[in-house]
Specification:
The protein is α/β, with parallel strands linked by helices and 326 residues long. It has 2 domains: 10-72 and 253-310, no CATH class; 75-201 and 225-252 and 313-321, Rossmann fold (3-Layer(aba) Sandwich), CATH 3.40.50. 43% of the residues lie in helices and 16% in strands. It contains 12 helices and 7 strands. It has helices at residues 15-26, 28-32, 39-57, 80-92, 106-114, 127-136, 175-185, 208-220, 232-239, 255-270, 272-277, 283-300; strands at residues 96-100, 119-124, 143-147, 160-166, 186-199, 243-249, 313-321. The protein has a 7-stranded mixed β-sheet. Helix 1 (15-26) runs antiparallel to helix 12 (283-300), helix 3 (39-57) packs across helix 12 (283-300) and helix 8 (208-220) packs antiparallel against helix 12. The longest helix has 19 residues, at 39-57. The protein is globular and about 60 Å long. Bound molecules: S-adenosylmethionine. S-adenosylmethionine binds next to helix 3 and helix 5.
């Protein structure tokens, strides 16, 4: 291991060193106990306790990766996912758009502002997110947020020309059931698209350390069943009658975010100031330091020589066209 300074750097830590540091600060076994917590309970506790962190991650409470081509984080990069949806909406002439798992609806609000003639409805499991989303979007007449799990999506929401999601569908292990709900709300031939993290198809052949880092990252982000394996969603969409299913691997565009969150996580794990505060920090908020620190390892194998093929996960955009009316 390289010589440590008072201000440790991500590049000082191999994945083995990173896991050892996490074990010293949090106890890996203690963290792993949450693997048996029911998903919805874990998701709700995680997001309620993490709100302070997400609101500090950026001023508009976006809760997803900023994307860029230069390996640097900027708040502007948080618009990338919404910009892709806007381009698709313009292409297909969408009149109604639905966001699943919207958080405080950063994406839906960006879209509603860019497309004032389009009705944008945002949904989320957590009432507190919906309240904040509606407060933040109160000036947008074509926007509203409604509480609904993406496993429910009631019929009275109507049908949408475009349904999208950003870093939320990973929270459900029930892929086929979620696709059926989406299909019921998608207008014939409409577009479904989502950005998310996935396990690489070769994830099982990676080192034990990387696999352990993966499980800890997933768990500390309230995904106890693990990210879906790359290709699983595509197969399920095709089985459900979706066509033109495409996947774009945009893993390298998340490097700037992983560097930023990795540095924040490392600071929290090493600096005295944060270590003294730790007993007063809610459990799931504190565990974001683990997830943030490990992101660069699971996505790129580490900070020293980051490359997508060195990681165990990918970040991608899946797009599919809904079935036409029978
Ligand atoms: C990482 S945040 C992303 C939020 C938003 N998409 C964004 O990009 O800012 C994931 C969101 O998914 C929501 N979520 C988790 N499980 C859900 C479910 N079953 N139905 C609806 N929303 C869910 C959480 O409450 C949280 O707001």
């Amino acid at each position: 291991m390289a010589q440590k300074t008072n201000d440790p750097k991500l590049t000082d830590y191999s994945v083995t060193d990173a896991l050892a540091l996490i074990d010293r600060r949090f106890g890996k076994d203690r963290l792993l106990r949450d693997l048996s917590t029911p998903t919805e309970r874990l998701v709700t506790a995680y997001y309620l306790q993490s709100r302070w962190g997400y609101e500090r991650y950026n001023p508009h409470a976006a809760m997803h990766m900023a994307l860029s081509d230069d390996g640097k984080y900027t708040h502007d990069g948080l618009r990338a996912q919404a910009d892709t949806v806007i381009a698709e909406a313009r292409k297909i002439g969408a009149r109604r758009i639905l966001e699943l798992g919207c958080g405080q609806a950063f994406n839906a609000r960006v879209i509603a502002e860019a497309l004032p003639e389009v009705e944008v409805v945002a949904t989320d499991l957590i009432e507190a997110h919906i309240t904040k989303a509606n407060e933040r979007g109160a000036h947008l007449p074509n926007f509203r947020a409604v509480r609904s799990s993406f496993t429910e999506l009631p019929d009275d929401l109507g049908q949408f020309d475009l349904i999208f999601a950003v870093e939320t569908l990973c929270h459900s292990p029930e892929i086929d059931a979620v696709i059926e709900r989406i299909k019921a709300r998608l207008a014939p031939g409409g577009t479904f698209m989502f950005h998310d993290a996935f396990r690489r198809t070769d994830w099982e052949s990676k080192s034990d350390d990387l696999k352990e880092a993966l499980v800890l990252n997933e768990l500390c982000l309230a995904v106890p069943h693990g990210y879906a394996v790359w290709g699983t969603w595509e197969d399920a969409l095709a089985r459900a009658g979706f066509t033109d299913v495409t996947t774009e691997d945009i893993s390298m565009q998340g490097l700037g975010t992983c560097r930023r969150l990795g540095r924040v996580g490392l600071k929290f794990l090493t600096q005295w100031k944060y270590r003294l505060l730790r007993p007063f920090v809610p459990k799931h908020l504190a565990r974001n330091a683990v997830a943030g620190f490990l992101g660069i390892y699971i996505m790129y194998g580490g900070a020293a020589d980051p490359a997508s093929e060195n990681g165990i996960t990918r970040y991608g955009l899946i797009r599919a066209v809904g079935p036409n009316a029978a």
